[in-house]
Here is the input.
Amino acid sequence: MNLTLKVWKQKNKDVRGSFETYQVSNISSEMSFLEMFDVLNEQLVHEGKEPIAFDHDCREGICGMCSMYINGRPHGPWHGTTTCQLHMRAFKDGDTIVVEPWRANSFPVLKDLIVDRGAFDRIIQAGGFISVNTGNAQDGNNIPIEKEKADQAFAAAACIGCGACVAACKNSSAMLFLSAKVSHLALLPQGAPERKTRALKMIAQMDKEGFGACTNTGACEAVCPKEISLDNIARLNKEYLGAAATIDK
Amino acid sequence: MLDSKIPPGKLEEKWNDYKGHVKLVNPANKRKLEVIVVGTGLAGASAAASLGEMGYRVKAYCFQDSPRRAHSIAAQGGINAAKNYQNDGDSVFRLFYDTVKGGDYRSREANVHRLAEVSVNIIDQCVAQGVPFAREYGGLLNNRSFGGTQVKRTFYAAGQTGQQLLIGAYQALERQVALGNVTMYSRHEMLDIVKIDGKARGIICRNLITGGLERHFGHAVLLCSGGYGNVFYLSTNAMGSNVTAAWKAHKKGAYFGNPCFTQIHPTCIPVTGDHQSKLTLMSESLRNDGRIWVPKKKDDPRKANDIPEDERDYYLERRYPAFGNLVPRDVASRAAKERCDAGYGVGTTKQAVYLDFKYNLINKYGRTEAGKQGIENPDQETLIRLGKEVVKEEYGNLFDMYEKITGENPYEVPMRIYPAVHYTMGGLWVDYELMTSVTGLYALGECNFSDHGANRLGASALMQGLADGYFVIPYTLGNYLADEIGTKPIPTTHEAFVEAEKAVADRINKLMSIKGKQSVESLHKRLGKIMWEKCGMARNEKGLKEAIEEIRALKKEFWSDVRIPGEINEMNPELDKANRVADFIELGELMCLDALNRAESCGGHFREESQTEEGEALRHDDRFMYVSAWEYKGDSDWNLNKEELNYDVIKPTQRNYK
Ligand SMILES: Cc1cc2nc3c(=O)[nH]c(=O)nc-3n(C[C@H](O)[C@H](O)[C@H](O)COP(=O)(O)OP(=O)(O)OC[C@H]3O[C@@H](n4cnc5c(N)ncnc54)[C@H](O)[C@@H]3O)c2cc1C
Ligand code: SF4
Ligand code: FES
Here is the structure.
């Protein structure tokens, strides 16, 4: 198939970017979306032009590197799918596809489609862990965990830290990401000792990074490639209120 | 010359004895010692976090935008540990034995035994960190089976085990960052080692955002930079996985161990065309429940589901009745190639075999679920529905991944799979303490050659990475640094730093000034093709000699005709790639040289000249019972050092999975 691509080009953090238009031809429906970009970049190198910079690594939907805003939707049209797993079957001959980077003040654009998501690491640094040094552990089976709880914790822990939730949110809130981590750890007995402070510290860091507040539009859940549920935000709110109440006393 | 520093004493007491007598560094002195950790996969993140907790001043580096994105994140199936929670006869000795045998008797007994010993601590540590492993209804940890073993010792989190383990290690690492014990340098790529008076004292790296070069000092340097499967262009590795860190170390004096030992994984989604940028693994754990077959008739035009049972050739079950579909990877891959080469392959390219879940979906899971739910005489439809639910829980993400890529639903039709490059057993040669042949330079995880011999068993890489990082290096590094407490940090204005940085800058300038016609990608693809055809699943003398010539020619072409757009002092992914591919080309030559030298078949290294009548790998222990440790002498020039392997406890035999 032949396609028209409108892609955001931006030299670096300090200059303004703009859209450029490209044509690609002979794209097979078996290609992945990023393989289509490989074809385009190969073409650009041959024409002596600069290829488009984009983040990617695993190309299996698990590392969370890829981050394209495709036709107005983070990660494109397929539900529960990362950009790298999107395949060209999703498009048809003659389509125009608009591709932008994540847009959020807390994710500055570094180049073209690449943004800086360091804020997510700093949110984890604020409390997204269980404080246990190497060598401190007891036998794994000494902590039986209800299967249902373990499964829920796993579902929350499946977040890949891609930032699509932030990109989709009109407030650029990081609540879905943050709540997934708080839920993962709060659901497990190992996470209990730090429960009271974890949510408070992480939320304080989120505010400091400039992410917006959550107004429950659900746009994040709709685009999350790992289908992280809004229930996690409800759980986070409970954790937060509980913690704030006890600390106030 | 090559001293592997294996402690004396009985095999099962070596590690304990070592730990009891190793030199220690007191807390005040640890504060004064700086450690560089290149890489934040399972090996690097666990090492950096543990060393930070101990009080060392750690600097960690990765080329991705966050340490959480290291390639380890993609590991699917699971991690082994000799817990014997299933009461099925497992033990430290059995895990040790299976690993040595699986590696076709080309690994060190002492290292493997230590690995098996600490495997149990890894699971405990990960559980304490909150890693959500799969559990039984009683709340205890669950296990599955992997290839090359007859016990269930693999711990897992659906098909996302690597992700969950890495997130655990990453969180531990970020906690140390917050405490100020670790400084994290993301989007940084190490491009050289700095050596002063024969010891590793730092690195030169490129800031991938600004393009600027930086000098960093460390009292010791740990390389945890992963494997080099991408030398084949197409592999299951992440796009960025590369050999550069290890290769720079090699050129600065670190020997390269068994470079030709590559693992070709039997169950990957087949290549669809020239546009293919990478291959996707379908976890080995699927062979627990999937049966592999091809039609008995050549070029059978029927759809898989239309071929009746008695016209299917379950060739692994036929050839290896004792292990069946769970033979080790090298054996399963060669068997698939044999069937396809003989004309029985399926799919449009005929380079694929079926992995079929129907039988177990119905009979194993469907029936058990029906039993649990008290459904009497369930019909086929009910069984399939019930079976699907269980399979979804076990492997759901893998089935989804398959469907997204191929557009076919593997719950309904068998998967089509074919072998693909997956893992490299070879890597930097290290001694028992994980130190390379350069003093003060260590290698951990897939980056070293140490534990898997000529073939790695499934679910053992995650185990090794975490063993090295959490439980081995915290002891062995102290043994070296205890003698370094008097060494003051060396200012990076030292001439060794200046020279190393200049060499890196010169090379980058040279690359950028070529301004040729061919893209980095196209040259990488050509290298991959040579490697796959001549140094892939089967190798022979003639092919390897040709490959060496072809690679040398390709190297010339690369250095005279590569085109890298953009500038040096900016974010430039094409330049990053060019740096890596230039090193892959040099490595490719060494891999072929090593494969040529090893005129035997063992594990994943199959020399066509050396096979049994049944086509199995035939070792020559009399001539090749050694580790090849290649020493870099200059351009296309290496010296072979041999580390003899001694088997004191296990008696090497012809591997038998029949
Ligand atoms: C698809 C897939 C599935 C797998 N499944 C399993 C499984 O189920 N069980 C199992 O045991 N094993 C599995 N493996 C193997 C296993 O995942 C790897 O061997 C293991 O994760 C490697 O870990 P590592 O820490 O050594 O390196 P990696 O995780 O590869 O990390 C390398 C790190 O080094 C950094 N780095 C590299 N070069 C540089 C440089 N020059 N400068 C700065 N930083 C650098 C990278 O940024 C990264 O942080 C699988 C592998 C693949 C490909
Ligand atoms: S919650 Fe979903 S969208 Fe947000 S970072 Fe995690 S995986 Fe990405
Ligand atoms: S490239 Fe890893 S999730 Fe897309």
